[in-house]
Structure formats: C-alpha cells, structure tokens
Amino acid sequence: MTGPDARPDPRPDPKATLHRYLQLHRDALVWKLDGASDYDVRRPLTPTGTNLLGLVKHLAAVESGYFGDTFDRPLPDRPSWFDDETPNADMWATADQSRTEIVELYRRVGAHADDTIEALPLDAPGRVPWWPPDRAVTLQLILVHVIAETARHAGHADILREQIDGSAGVRREHSGLWQAEGQSWEDYRAGLQQVAETFR
How much is the pTM? Predict the structure, then answer.
C-alpha cells in the first residue's frame, strides 16, 4: 500500500509517553539521595518534617497501592509498615530501616508497577480502595495521578537537597537550571533579595 495512509503514525504512543515521564521523576527523586549522608537524608528540613528518605519511602507505598491494589495486582512480600496506622508512618525511615532497603523497595515497587503498566491498556478499569467506591478509574487516570504526585515530591526533594549542599536540578549531569554566564548563584540570589527589600 502506498500513499499517506502507509506512513507510520508520527504520534507517540500515549502510554509510553506517560510511563517515560513517570520514570523521569522517579530517577530525579532517587538521585537526590546520592552523596548525602545518612543524617542528611533523614533529618527533617521543614516545619512539617519533610525529609529526603521519607519521600522515597512514601512514594514506594504510593506506587504499590495505585498500581498494585487498584488493579488487583498486590505487591508480593509487602513490608509490614504498609499497614502501619501510625500517622505519617510512610513519611520517615525508622532507625532500623536503611537507605539501601528503602531505595531497593522503591525500585522493586517500580518494577512491579511497570509490569502493571505494560500488561494493561490505558482504559483498563480499576478501583482505588481508599477513594469513594463510585469513582471510576482507569490505568490512564492512575498514571497521571501518580506522575503528578511523584513530580510534586521530586520538587520537594530538590529543594531539600539544595538546602543541604546546593545540589539542584533534574539530573546530576544536567540540572536544567538556567544561569547567566559569569553570574554566581549568590549574586543572583542577592539581586532577588534586593528587589524583595523594596516591598518591606
């Protein structure tokens, strides 16, 4: 067959695109731990206790629930703390939970989620146990929801890590941050402060 109809579809696969953005934000989150001390990844850096390792732990629970339980594909060998009703139990690592353990769990959960994404079409129905029972969901909705949550927390992690040692950006090798040539971040920040002072 010849003619326009024979050309490959130039549009990207929607599921692959969504999956790629999820992985981008997963990677951005995990690299925020690289090179930081065990103390720095655990210490609370906001008034509400937000900490780097806790964000990774939280998102492991998030992905396990949304890509596992929602589609009747529960994560094998779920950690017992998934069912801990202590407030914010998933937002911080206990003294006996190592960084390696938490990161490996996040990667294991991610691989399980990837299997769900691969196995199901975007319109596959699911049910989120903690959402209203009459709320219809699909894999597409869950992908968008988890991408948004992961991106939000990756942004939190970016700011936390910047407070620790100045590391910032989407990737260690390419931050994606614009900076004027020859200008230091200290000079840039000083300029912003000067403008802000005019509003005191």
Answer: 0.89
